[in-house]
Design goal:
By secondary structure, the protein is α/β, with parallel strands linked by helices. It is 53% helix and 14% strand. Helix 8 links the parallel strand 7 and strand 8. Helix 1 packs across helix 5, helix 3 crosses helix 8 and helix 11 runs antiparallel to helix 12.
């Protein structure tokens, strides 16, 4: 399968049709290329936001690797005639890549989550993958993205740490937009937006059982556990996604 065959055009995005194992290989290739690259993982919420947020669209337009983090995207790809082979969840990538990082001595930096969460996640990954090199962790204060001096300080921390991979866990769309705006100044070979990965790895938040993830109802599990924060997002976002899918099918 050549590079063109490994892509699916879905909802205006050129999605890389890769398995998790293949995605890890591609991420390592991006590290070795030594130029700032961006990895994004769209889900149904992202597809909806792309219609209303110009800077979010710009982030996706600049992405070097786009991996489908959504069972609804997999289902839609089959209906639209370009079936994706596997869900590659952003929240699974740090765990999946850490073994390769340990073997290749790649340095990782974790940005985001609440204070202490990234440290716990990094410790767990390091114990699981002996030799893993954690270049740094940082939990930025609320509202940092709108303050130049705070952003400058974060960039200084990242540049001083010299990581090979920067994992960004700042929420959507803030994380994707921040990663796009700052990837070049940060100078990291690969920046990956990884959703709630640090919360899940650290145990700060409980993840849906694997069988429920495979059925495509991880969103329902998360909404039950964080109803105030997530019910509106999923209700509105998923409804909008269904409408957008219907429009795609009618084309």
């Amino acid at each position: 399968m050549d590079a063109a065959e490994k892509k699916c055009r879905l909802f205006g995005l050129s999605v890389d049709n890769l398995t998790m194992a293949e995605a890890v290989v591609e991420i390592e290739k991006l590290i070795l290329a030594r130029r700032p690259a961006l990895v994004l993982t769209p889900n149904a919420q992202h597809i909806s936001l792309l219609r209303s947020k110009a800077d979010f669209r710009a982030a996706y337009a600049a992405a070097d690797l786009i991996l489908a983090d959504s069972a609804p995207l997999l289902w839609s790809s089959r209906l639209l005639g370009c079936p994706l082979r596997e869900r590659v969840a952003g929240s699974d990538i740090p765990d999946a890549f850490s073994g390769v990082a340990a073997r290749g001595s790649y340095r990782l930096f974790f940005l985001g989550a609440a204070p202490g969460v990234a440290e716990r996640a990094a410790d767990i990954l390091a114990k699981k993958n002996p030799g893993l090199r954690v270049a740094g962790v940082y939990a930025p204060p609320w509202g940092f993205e709108g303050r130049r001096e705070m952003n400058d300080e974060i960039i200084r921390k990242i540049r001083a740490a010299q990581p090979d991979v920067l994992f960004v866990a700042l929420g959507t769309p803030k994380g994707e937009i921040w990663a796009w705006k700052h990837k070049d100044t940060a100078g990291v070979p690969v920046t990956i937006c990884c959703g709630a990965a640090l919360d899940f790895i650290s145990g700060n938040k409980k993840r849906a059982p694997r069988w429920l993830q495979k059925l495509g109802f991880e969103w329902f599990y998360r909404a039950l556990h964080e109803p105030r924060r997530l019910w509106k997002r999923y209700l509105v976002g998923n409804t909008h996604f269904v409408i957008l899918l219907a429009k795609e099918l009618l084309k």
